[in-house]
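#lab-general

N.A. 3:47 PM
ok so I finally got the sequence cleaned up, no stray characters, all 187 residues accounted for. can someone with queue access submit it? mine expired

B.Y. 3:52 PM
send it over

N.A. 3:53 PM
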Amino acid sequence: ELFNPNHKARYFTLFRDPIERIVSTFYYHQIAEWETDKNVYQPELANTTIEEWLQMPGAQGLGDLKNFYMKSLFNKDQFTDEDLEQAKEIIRTKFLVGLVSKMQESVDRFDYYFGWSHHVKREECGKEAIQTGYNRNPHSSTALEEGSKAWNLLVKMNHYDLQLYDFIVQLYKEQGVLFGIFDVHVD
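B.Y. 4:20 PM
back already:
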C-alpha cells in the first residue's frame, strides 16, 4: 500500500510573492513569442507600463491573476474572510511549503522530506532547475516600486492572496523548525 497512517500523502509546492508573480507575468507577456496561446504573447505590451496594463479594461489574462492562489484552491472569483481561513487550514494541514525566494532551501526541504537526496539525477536536476532556472524572466525583480500606484493597485486586487502568502511565509518558518536542520530566516 503506497499510503497508510505511517506514510501519509502530502502536497508540496513553491509559492511566490503574489505581486512579484504578477509583475513577472506582465513582462513575460511582452517577450514570450514562443508561446502558442494567443493570450500569452502580447507584443503590444512592450510599450505599455504595468500601471497602464493594470487599468486596461478587459486586459487579457489579468483576471486570472487576481487572487490566483485563492482561485486555485476554491475555483471561484469572490472570497470571504472565512474562505481565507479555510485556505490557511488546507495549506497548513496538506502542504509542505516552499518559497521561490528561498528556492535552494525549499528544494532541500523537499529532498529531505521525500527522501530524494540520493537519487542519481538529483545533482543534475538541481543544477538545471535551481541554478540555471527554467523559464526565467529577465526583467528586474525591482521593476515595481513599493507604494507606487501600480503597486497599490496590485495590493488591492490581491487582498486575499497577500494575506495567504503572509501566512505561508510564517508556515515556512514553522515547518523549518520541525525539520530542525534549516535556517528559517525569511526576508
